[in-house]
Amino acid sequence: MSAKKDKKTFWDTITTYNSLMKISIEGPNCTDPTVCLGDCCDIQINVPKILAKKYIKEGYATKNDFIRSNVYSFKLGFNYLTAKCVLFDQNKNGCSVHHSNIKPPECWIYPTGFSPPKETPIRCKKVGGWNIKKVRTLIKAEELYEIYKEFCLLEAKSELENIKNRVINSKRKDLKKTFQEIKPSHLAGFQDSWDTIEPLYAEGYSLFLKRLCKKYNPSCPYIPHNFVQCEQICTSIANELISFLECYLQSYCKQKGCDSSGKYPFHRLFKDITTSEY
């Protein structure tokens, strides 16, 4: 199947799914602030990149609103001012894409899946789920959901293969220069982002880079006792970081799996690399 046909199948699947869910279930009016304050919108929903791109194109989100995931390609980030999903609209007191026909399929069925409790008064979706109005259309929606999941998992596999390209993109955007603007004790690892690999900053101090410094720049006056006083990563260590990325990150992800937030701290990476190498 061609990529163009794959995309058409995806959009047919998700829009039809959304349409079917709208007529298949009923529940409380979650946009009524006396009923709900977005209590279901405090989780991070996994989404494929093709859907994330659509949200960006339509103005619902930006690239920075998506976090790398170990399930699909991305997951929706949080708005830390509201402590809710980035798609939550305070003015609507609900999801900004609810009526768009491109709402993430998982959002429709959270938290009960396709089998909400029977004969339970539905006062809150998060507590009780929702009522089924049309069983046949719900069954069809569930079938489409399986097709959607299959597409997302295939896309996520492709995105894993593209880590190499994101490393190349980072080099083009002069990641080496970015490294050299950071104190070595402030760099904790790597962050896999939308189309590049970015520095992962430490919360406080990180001493793991000291391992590379000892091996590749042993004459440095800050090694071994004054590491935290060093103001910037030197050229030789920046080069080693780039080499490390090129040699190990993709193979690490294939062997150990992708991180649930796209974060790869040195202490985890070095743990799986022999001492003779680093």
Write a brief caption for the model:
This protein is α+β, with helices and mostly antiparallel strands.
Mean pLDDT: 90
Helix content: 40-55%
Q: Main beta sheet: strand number and arrangement?
A: 3 strands, antiparallel
**SSE succession:** HEEHEEEEEEHHEHHHEEHHEH
N-to-C span: 44 Å
Give your account of this protein's structure.
With about 280 residues, the chain is of the alpha+beta class. The protein folds into two domains: about 5-155, no CATH class; about 175-270, no CATH class. The chain contains ten helices and twelve strands. It has a three-stranded antiparallel β-sheet with strand order 2-4-3. Strands 11-10-12 form a three-stranded antiparallel β-sheet. Strands 1-9 form a two-stranded antiparallel sheet. A hairpin with a 4-residue loop joins strand 7 (about 90) and strand 8 (about 95). The chain is elongated, with a radius of gyration of 23 Å. The mean pLDDT is about 90.
Spell out the key features of this protein.
alpha+beta, 10 helices, 278 residues, 42% helix, three-stranded antiparallel β-sheet, single chain, elongated
Question: What is the strand and helix layout of this fold?
Answer:
Elements: H1 3-24, E1 25-26, E2 46-47, H2 49-57, E3 66-68, E4 74-76, E5 78-79, E6 84-85, E7 88-89, E8 94-95, H3 105-109, H4 125-128, E9 131-132, H5 135-161, H6 163-172, H7 175-179, E10 187-192, E11 197-201, H8 210-216, H9 235-256, E12 263-265, H10 266-271
Antiparallel strand pairs: 1-9, 2-4, 3-4, 5-6, 7-8, 10-11, 10-12
Helix pairs in contact: 1-5, 6-9
